[in-house]
Write a structure and sequence with these properties.
Length: 136
Amino acid sequence: MLNEEEPDYYEVLGVEPKADVKLIRAAYYRLAQTFHPDKNSSINSDQFQRISKAYTALSDPSLRAAYDSRRFLKITADSFLDKISLSEFEERELRLFYYSCRCGGLFQLGLIDDSDLQSSVVVNCDSCSIQILVEP
Ligand SMILES: [Zn+2]
């Protein structure tokens, strides 16, 4: 996972995540021209540090691969998920629970026997790609 301190290096350099190393290098040199403390003493060096760190992480293929997988996990975790409590579902049939998706579709959760939901489960909308996390 990205920790809170690790910024999105692609954003820092202003490049697309699929940018090749030549584009990344060009973006870095362009930003370094602007932000290097030797070139511009009025700019605080934090910005240059950020740019340098981003470039270091993205210009080395193995560091970049490691960063990309952390970034992917973070993005996945962020888009994941609205957490909905089971009590917000409507039980329309015995042990069959429904919750309306914002697309107009439905999340359906069937619970076998009378057991309560034991742990959180991911439920897919029946009409779109949204998933929610249903908590007991
Ligand atoms: Zn939906």
